[in-house]
Amino acid sequence: MQPSEGYQYDGGPPNTAHGHQIPAGSRLNQYLANNNRQGPSFGPGTPINVNAPVFVPKHQQPQPTPPPPPPPMANQFAQLSIHDVPVQMIPFGQISSGPPSFQQQLPHMSHRPPQHQQGAPPLSIPSIHHQQQPYDRYQHESRGGTTYFYHEPQAEGPPEEEQYNPQEGQDGYIVVFISSELKAELLNRQLAYDTKPDPSAYPDIPQTVEHYSSLVPLESINLQNQSHSTYKGFSCRDGNYYCLRRIHGNRIQHPGKQTHLVEQWKKLSHGNIVPLREVLINCRAFDDSSLVFAYDYYPLAETLMVKHFEVKPATFYDPNNAFRITSPMANSVVLHGAGGANETLIWSYIIQIAAALRSIHSSGLACRTLDLNKVITYGNKIMLSFCGVQDVIDPDSTPIQQQQNEDLNMFGNLIVALATGRANGYRKDLYPGSKKFIEDNFSMDLRNVIGFLHNNGTRKTINEIMPMIGGRFFTVMESMQSKSDLMEAELSKELENGRLFRLIAKMNTVLERVEYGADEKWSETGDRFMLKLFRDYVFHQVTDQGKAWLDMAHIVQCLNKLDCGSTEKIEMVSRCGDTQIIIDYATLKRCLEKSFRELVGNNMIHR
Ligand SMILES: Nc1ncnc2c1ncn2[C@@H]1O[C@H](COP(=O)(O)OP(=O)(O)OP(=O)(O)O)[C@@H](O)[C@H]1O
C-alpha cells in the first residue's frame, strides 16, 4: 500500500474472494511506488466512503440467479439514476458484447449525491429526486478500509409507467437544457443570421456595398418601383450583421448641412431605439447615388404593422425561393377584433415608446417618423427603427419643440391604430368612429393619453404622460425583470453545458493519443492511467448483465465533481478487473490539469 497524491491503491479486503493485488511488476505499481508526493492517504484502518457502485470482476462474483430480462435500453437510460444501480457493476474489459450506442440525449437530470458524501462542494447542477426512498434501498459495509454499497433486491422493478417523457417536466425533475420555446426562437434567429442571398434571384442586388456583403432583402422587393429598400448585410470589418436601409437615388448635395445630426443619432443609446452605426452617402454600389443607413440587425424583428395588421406572420420572406422563417413568438399576441392589440399590450407599447421618445427628445432630437412600419418588435420588446433617416433626407428647420410635438401627435395616431385595429383609424374622416370605439372598449386612462397626445393647443412634453401611465409602469417593469431573470437562468444552463463540454474536450485531448502511443509514460501510467480509468467510470459503466448502464445524471454529476475538485472519493476498476483504485476528484482534477498542461507545453494550440 503506497501513499500517493490523494489516491491510493486499495487491494480490498485481504484473503477474500473480492481481494486484488497489484502485480509486483505492473506499471501501476511502478507509478505508485515512484509517486512519493504527500497527500491525503487512507489505509486499511481508515474507513472510506466511496460514492460509487462497486465494481466487482465478474469471475469473482457469486453467480446470481438469472435476472428477469431488462427493459428496453431507452427506458433503462431514462429511468436509471445512481439510485437504481444494479447490484454489481462489471468492469468494462470483461464484457464480451460491445456497449450499445449512446443515442439518447436527456434533457432531464435524475441524480442526487448520496447522503454519506462529505466535504464535497455544492454542485452547480442541483439534485432532482426529492424522495429519500431510493437511498434507503442501499446497504453498506466496510471492509479493509473500503465501504461497499450494495443494492437490496427489490420485490418489483420500477413500474412501466415511470418512463421518461421529455415533454412533461414531471415533478421532481429539473430541466437542464434550454426551454424548447426559447431554443426554437434562438435557432430561428440563427437561421435568419445564416440566410445567404441567391444572386441569380436578385441580379440587381450588388455583391458588396463598401464593407458590407451577402446582402439579403428583408422584405419582398421590387427595385424599380421603390423609393427605399431594406437588407441584411454582413460587415467584413467587424464580422457583424447589420440592417441596411437604402434610400434610392438620393444624392447628398450638401453633406455637412444634411448629415450634421448623424453623429448625435449615432451617440444615442437606448434599449428601445435601434442604434444607428453608419451612414454611407452617395453610394454607387446600386448603380445610382444611394443613401445607406446601417443599423444593428435584429433577426426576425417585425414591424407593428406586420405583427398586428397583416395576415402574413413571416418576418423574413424571399418570394423567389419561398424561403420563410416565422418567429414562434410572433403569433402569441391576443388580437383585438380584426387586428390591433389589447389594452395591456398597448400600455406596454406606450411605456416603451414613451421611454424611447424621452431619450430622443432629451438629446435635442426628434423622431420625425413614428408609425406602425417604423416600430419593430423583437422578443417582448419594441424598438423605434430607422431613426435619423428623415433628418438626412429632409432636414427641417422648424423649431425642435414643434418637431417633438409632432412626434407626440404621431404617437397618438399609433395608439389609435392599435386600439381600433385599423391602421388608418386616426384619419380625420375615420376619427369620430375610432373615438367612439375607444370610449366603449378602453379605459379612461388610455383615452386621456390619446387626448393629451393629440392636443395641439398646448406645449407638451413626453414626460407628462407619466402620471397617466401610473402603476402600469411597474407591471411592465416587473414583466421585463422576470423575462430578464428567465434569460439569465437559461444562459446559466448553457454556461453549464459549455463548462462541461470544455472538461470533456480536455479529457479526450489528453487520453490515448496515437502520437504518444509508443510512449508508455504518457498513455498507460500515472495521471493518464487514472484519467483513463475515470473515463470508464464516468462513461462506460455496465450492468452485471453486460449491458451499458446509461445515466446522464451520473455523467453530469461526475464531471461536475471533477470540475470543482470535490474531495469525495470514488473507486475505479481497470478494464481487466485486476486493479482497483480509490481516488478523490480533487486528485483527478490535478491529473487532468497537469496532463493538459504537459500536452499544451509540447504542442502548438490551434484555435
Ligand atoms: N434593425 C432591424 N433589424 C432587423 N430587421 C429590421 C430592422 N429594422 C427593420 N427591420 C425589418 O425590415 C423590414 C422593413 O420593411 P420595409 O422596407 O417595407 O419598410 P417599412 O418601413 O416596413 O415599409 P414602408 O415601405 O411602408 O416604409 C421589416 O420587415 C422590418 O421588420
Automatic annotation (TrEMBL):
Cellular localisation: Cytoplasm, P-body
Record: residues binding ATP? R245, D296, Y297, Y298, P299, L300, A301, E302, T303, N373, K374
* Chain segments carrying region Disordered: 1-76, 99-121
**Residue ranges of every copy of the Pan3 C-terminal knob domain listed in the record:** 462-599
Region annotated Knob domain sits at 510-607
Q: What is its main location?
A: cytoplasm
Q: Which Gene3D superfamilies match?
A: 1.10.287.3700, 1.20.5.5160, Transferase(Phosphotransferase) domain 1
Give the coiled coil ranges: 471-509
For whether the record's keyword set contains Nucleotide-binding, the answer is: yes
GO terms, molecular function: ATP binding; poly(A) binding
The alphabetical list of record keywords is:
ATP-binding, Coiled coil, Cytoplasm, mRNA processing, Nucleotide-binding
- Enumerate the Gene Ontology biological process terms: mRNA processing; nuclear-transcribed mRNA poly(A) tail shortening; positive regulation of cytoplasmic mRNA processing body assembly
Residue ranges with Polar residues bias: 27-39
InterPro entries the UniProt entry points to: Kinase-like_dom_sf (IPR011009), PAN3 (IPR030844), Pan3_CK (IPR041332)
Compositional bias (Pro residues) at which positions? Answer: 63-73
Which is one Gene Ontology cellular component term of this protein? PAN complex
Q: Which domain of life is it from?
A: Eukaryota
Q: Which HAMAP family match?
A: PAN3 (MF_03181)
- Domain notes, please? The N-terminal zinc finger binds to poly(A) RNA. The pseudokinase domain, the coiled-coil (CC), and C-terminal knob domain (CK) form a structural unit (PKC) that forms an extensive high-affinity interaction surface for PAN2.
Q: What does this protein do?
A: Regulatory subunit of the poly(A)-nuclease (PAN) deadenylation complex, one of two cytoplasmic mRNA deadenylases involved in general and miRNA-mediated mRNA turnover. PAN specifically shortens poly(A) tails of RNA and the activity is stimulated by poly(A)-binding protein (PABP). PAN deadenylation is followed by rapid degradation of the shortened mRNA tails by the CCR4-NOT complex.
Family to which this protein belongs: Belongs to the protein kinase superfamily. PAN3 family.
Assembly information from the UniProt record? Homodimer. Forms a heterotrimer with a catalytic subunit PAN2 to form the poly(A)-nuclease (PAN) deadenylation complex. Interacts (via PAM-2 motif) with poly(A)-binding protein (via PABC domain), conferring substrate specificity of the enzyme complex.
The name under which this protein is listed is PAN2-PAN3 deadenylation complex subunit PAN3
